[in-house]
Specification:
Chains A, B, C, D: Its cofactor is FAD. The structure is a homotetramer. Chain A is of the alpha+beta class. Chain A folds into three domains: 109 residues, Butyryl-Coa Dehydrogenase, subunit A, domain 1 (Orthogonal Bundle), CATH 1.10.540.10; 111 residues, Butyryl-CoA Dehydrogenase, subunit A, domain 2 (Beta Barrel), CATH 2.40.110; 136 residues, Butyryl-CoA Dehydrogenase, subunit A, domain 3. In chain A, 50% of the residues lie in helices and 12% in strands. Chain A contains 14 helices and seven strands. Chain A has a four-stranded antiparallel β-sheet with strand order 2-3-7-6, with no helix packed on it. In chain A, strand 2 and strand 3 form a beta hairpin. The radius of gyration of chain A is 25 Å and the shape is globular. The relative contact order of chain A is 0.09. At the A-C interface, helix 1, helix 2, helix 8, helix 9 and helix 10 of A face helix 1, helix 2, helix 8, helix 9 and helix 10 of C.
Chain lengths: 448, 448, 448, 448
């Protein structure tokens, strides 16, 4: 909550944001986390899980709205619908949302709707906004973003190949998508689909378009749902969806043919800030559970509480340190995005994208280990959190792709830096002469 | 298979074992791994999963027996029922069994039955053997070992507190057990239960007894099954079981009252060799899947196959190295156990217990990462393997408990080593005098 | 320089500080780094190294003063002698100073003088200030802080046992000190010495006092100098010094008898910020050298430049990320110290103290590895930098002591957190009832 | 000593080798380690260090010969001069030799002489053997192997470019060499030099030749010695040597023109076994020092001995485990080399080459950390050991080059493995049909 904001950023947090942050924190801890249990129970078992819309969620949404918590993710200044928070301010709220499974949806800030609403708000025309953005903003429907495909290496988006062929005033879509997160939810009414509309364009970044496809369109089949380390993540889920001659009005095209890359790039920046801040919240919750466990008076192996054993306090200290460092990295990226825009913040966002999930996985795994068997089971939130966050090392490109790109960018300094060092060395030689002194090279007097 | 046995141990492998190993390898690769898919399909969905006994398993068992593959785990020399393999020889076979979900059970070498059969063979009386060991050896029933309890720190087995009270010629059991692996299987007919029969015994290692409890006994409730990450591991499963006034004939006691610790300690050594060798097999399979993926001609991010990208070949090399090193550690432990018994091999077994799961988790996680989304889903065996093996860092005591114990043992050398170094330093001083030379201490001529 | 200040802190940097930072950066890169070579050459060889005062250093000091760079470390607001920078502002300058061996001394901001000047400025009386602070502020003499002792575990300062016995209006000192950094310099005129003046005081934090001892006092012997991975660090050096009946006027006592702990605690905060920021500068320089090497057109193993090989760009990316994260951690600590004082910033300072040296060592070691043989030799600054920074994981207490303390502090939340989770769980049970829904426990319908 | 031989290899150790191993162990612990101090004292200071031949070394050599310890490295069966030990057997002895600085030379098993003697014994003609092998075998002279060059990426030996031009019955050599280890020793009389004799040969592996160059030949200058971190490693040292029109008789050519690669490849296998086993010995010694320290009754931070603090025992346990695993890896490689030759053992040797130095560095660094300041100084052998072993991650090719090669080799299985998995998947489909069962795909019944 507001009292825990790192001092570095505190002066950038408005009073309104600080107050809202406190309300978010209280709402998450007192309402949402307890509701998680009910939500899971209401989702039920078997195929019913994909038809469920747990009632408690609607009750939470109502409460959230009454508390003034709604759509906080929409950044200040860019959208008239925005409640007026910066990415930094919302980032701090997102951390709290990340502690609970239902919290983000309860305040209408859940992925992938947030990114999808940004796409519609930024790139959609008025008709598209009226039809899809309005109900999304109202939390009446949900949405999915269909990009990744099973048969190609989608980490390089140029490989995406779902066919989009113009036929009169329609496009006809054929192909497969997977990791279509949110597609399991019965309220998911709209798919934002990336496909290849111009496969022969010489510029590989102009071959793709984005189009809006109502989820009930003929020819669409939810082939199956993907599991994540055994979890189905229902009702949300991760869909594997096939398109067979799916006809969509050409007016559903977003921004224009060949502008797919433009759209997906604009979409990623804020989403990565949200994701990473939620992930930090998850790590904080894991640390809290770990603290609970190691101080549990009933668990005393070898006559001592866990906190008194060997490495445990060092794990706590490292977890604290690593979370705190990771948070500063994300907040720095958020400020850069707020003040200079997402393009200028590319490096900082990429750093957060790579650092935070690895940090959180380490912290959560320590918590699992300190719980013993309970840690891997349904009795703590830890195993599920670990599985969800493990996917973040892959989603939107695996760590290694980002690291290569970051390495290439940093390496651009190579030539300039080499020149600087060469100049320093030349100057050193000059100075040696000026001071009439020679390097005393080790062993230079050896005469064998 | 036999051609890949590390040269260090090859001369200890009999011709018969080498031949059997080749048969095991072929059976696993050609029959069991394909059968895993059918097994999972036959297990079905929902509550039916806990009633299933997939037909394919019985067919595999029949084939296995016809190939002479049955009960290979029972070590040579100790049991007349043994097919005559050493722990080393069986260890090499277990590696192959670990590549498939059904293979161990298909050759009647599945945990926890193996350890339970050893308990019965070593400590059971004739009646107990006839009733329970015989059908277990025949693969007609299955068994569970009930030790860990939810409400105490079971990593210190002295904390185990299920009440066992003598009442005439019966014991009455009250309490809770969890992580009762295998209890979900409808064919699981016998529980080997550890409980506290003499809570006031001054020797905390004499308070516990082990008793045989038929799974259908009145008062036993399978409260629920525990998940491992999101997997239920059905029909096997991990049970949370409650005992309410469960009456068991006193003749079901194993070995005698107060001898529980003796029994569990004898049980662990070979089991750890089996587990770790199976785990190495799993790591090998993960590496194979990774190799498949990085050479997949259809997956070419940024114009190159994955094997040509950045760190991938280094991951392959490290995985190869780490698996090979871990295998040598286990085989060394197996030889020590074969030649000097499990007590002498405590250090070596503990090293394998700690090293192997961590190694395998690292290898599997690299494979997951190289697969992208498919890696965490049901489309590869990787996510499930990772989850199963993650529990091995906790089962039979968390790594940290073992490391503390290992550290204490190694530290016993402290005094002797300190004396040796002191003697060396004294001798050095003597020698300096003898050679009339003084240490040239840095800066010893400083006179400011 | 000022263009690279992390955006998070930029608005806290005054124009004057930004301008000074640019001057510092230019001075370091263009004057100090080339001068490092001359400095080392002027130090010479053998015993002469401890008598050297390289002329180039005085020339640099003159230039520094002419540029307005002098004593920037003295924090704004606390001392009238301060040039008016916050710890944050000076921290950014210290990063640049850390790239060169001579730079800190050239601007009179070198340890241990900085900490010693703070002690004198804060705790010294007027006479002490006139005699010692004045010439230190003028860069005319140097100083050492004598705390650690060879025969005890000094990481727990209560163990320090150099005897300080009052004898009339003098104290008589007997004992040994080591790691007395700077004591090798012939210009080191004053030792600030911690000793035990009241060994029987019940409060172990009141047994120690701090006294000023002129380095030439009778009875003091520089026994020898300690090496750091083979480096002597001359003329500065790390002294092992013995005190034999050293008589010092009682008026040299700082603050008063028994107040040693108070003094050393006040001394550490800012010093840790300085040290860690300099260390970040060293890491930046190592990364620059690495970039030079991997782009060297003459070094092409296997037909490709190093930057095109396997893991190299990932090393670059990780180094960039880790340095950037570590810097944010230090700057956050600096701001906290500036705004709330060193006590409030204890956690943040400890985090920087532990994180930064490990980060820098990792970065430098990658650079060493990319250089091959040159990396470990005198041909790059890398090996020496690594050795110097390795000591920071030990100096002022080993990492492990800090981590234990940090773990204990974080663990203070244990009780509160456990209560919160218990309340959440109770509320969840309530809600389940309210919504008339039950948890669907896995396997709870098993009836075997 | 022989009682500690891993059980896995014990049956391959002859009685003679076991006895010799015990003698080696005793000689190292009781004679050589104390002599290390005297050796360092006798080497002296300044330029004298490169002229020194410490007397104690000759005394040790005499004692070693009287104990029957001489040239044990020369493998059994290959050389008539061999004392008859396998690489495995000598490897176990090399572990002990690695604990002391002087021990290897005392028994005439020091690098680079061992590899050089192998070159001469295997590839030299009778005249070359008489002139150089004989005195080397007698320990009368020493030798250096000049391969690496400062101006190229020598990790790819094809880049080596020292010019060797035939001129009548001589070769004329021009160029630079560095990391010429041992060249600092006044007794180093012979250089084995690799150069480019046929730069235009189409086969880049035929351009190089190896020639014997007496160290006093006209035109050779020891330009300087390279330091390793701050150590000079005198009198042995690491030379940077220039060749200016150095004329050598053509009869000094080894094996024939263009056969340089053949020679260096034959030279590396056994040397890597020796190096890695010595490194394991160093790690063992570091662990012993650590055990001494953590049990030191005088070092009690916060009222407890170090062994009772936090992570220390876990460090001990991990060190024990990691050393033991690394040793098994080397011994497995040694056996493979003994039984199937160095080519067959390439994989195993490369694994040892990469694994062992990293393991030892980790163990030594833990020991340094547990010592505090003493660990980085001249007061323990640790800092020096660390620096020496750090070079092994670079010598004979950096780790990364080996890992890439190992990855490529392992990846050769890619196609075969992919085919196997494809066959398994096809068989699974068949079996599903045969058993009339279908996969129950998650969410496949979703109909939204």
């Amino acid at each position: 909550m507001s009292a825990q904001i790192p001092i570095t950023v505190r002066d950038r947090i408005s009073d309104k944001a600080a107050k809202t942050l406190d309300i978010v924190a209280k709402f998450v801890e007192e309402d949402c986390i307890p509701a998680d249990t009910v939500f899971e129970a209401q989702v039920g078992v078997g195929d019913a899980r994909w038809k469920a819309h747990p009632k408690i969620l609607e009750d939470l949404k109502q409460k959230a709205r009454s508390l003034g918590l709604w759509n906080m993710f929409l950044p200040k200044g860019h959208y008239k619908e925005s409640p007026g928070f910066t990415n930094l301010e919302y980032g701090l709220m997102a951390e709290w949302l990340g502690k609970s499974r239902v919290a983000s949806e309860a305040v209408n800030c859940a992925a992938p709707d947030t990114g999808n609403m940004e796409v519609l708000a930024r790139y959609g025309n008025d008709a598209q906004k009226a039809e899809w953005l309005r109900p999304l903003m109202d939390g009446v429907i949900r949405s999915a973003f269909l990009m990744t495909e099973p048969q190609v290496a989608s980490s390089d988006a140029r490989n995406i190949e779902l066919k989009m062929v113009r036929d009169g005033d329609h496009y006809v879509l054929n192909g497969s998508k997977w990791w279509s997160s949110g597609a399991g939810d019965p309220r998911c009414k709209i798919y934002i689909v990336m496909g290849k509309s111009d496969p022969n364009n010489k510029d590989p970044y102009k071959q793709q378009s984005v189009i809006l496809v109502p989820s009930g369109t003929k020819g669409i089949t939810i082939h199956r749902m993907l599991s994540v380390y055994g979890y189905d993540d229902a009702p949300h889920g991760h869909g594997h969806i096939t398109f067979h001659n799916v006809r969509v009005p050409a007016s559903n095209l977003v921004l224009g043919e060949g502008r797919g890359f433009e759209i997906i790039q604009g979409r990623l920046g804020p989403g990565r800030i949200h994701h990473t801040m939620r992930t930090i919240g998850a790590a904080e919750r894991a640390l809290e559970w770990m603290l609970m466990r190691i101080n549990d008076p009933k668990k005393t192996p070898f006559g001592k509480q866990l906190r008194e054993h060997g490495v445990i306090l060092e794990w706590v200290a490292k977890s604290r340190l690593e979370i705190d460092a990771a948070r500063l990295v994300v907040l720095n990226a958020a400020i850069k995005m707020d003040e200079q825009g997402p393009k200028a913040a590319l490096k900082e966002i990429a750093q957060a994208k790579v650092l935070v999930p690895q940090t959180a996985l380490t912290v959560i795994d320590r918590a699992v280990q300190s719980f013993g068997g309970a840690g891997v089971s349904q009795d703590t939130p830890l195993a599920n959190m670990w599985a969800q966050i493990r996917t973040l090392r892959l989603a939107d490109g695996p760590d290694e792709v980002h690291l290569q790109q970051m390495g290439r960018n940093e390496n651009r300094r190579g030539k300039e830096v080499a020149a600087k060092i060469a100049a320093q060395q030349a100057k050193a030689e000059e100075l040696l002469k000026k001071y009439s002194v020679t390097r005393s090279e080790l062993g230079s007097n050896i005469k064998h």
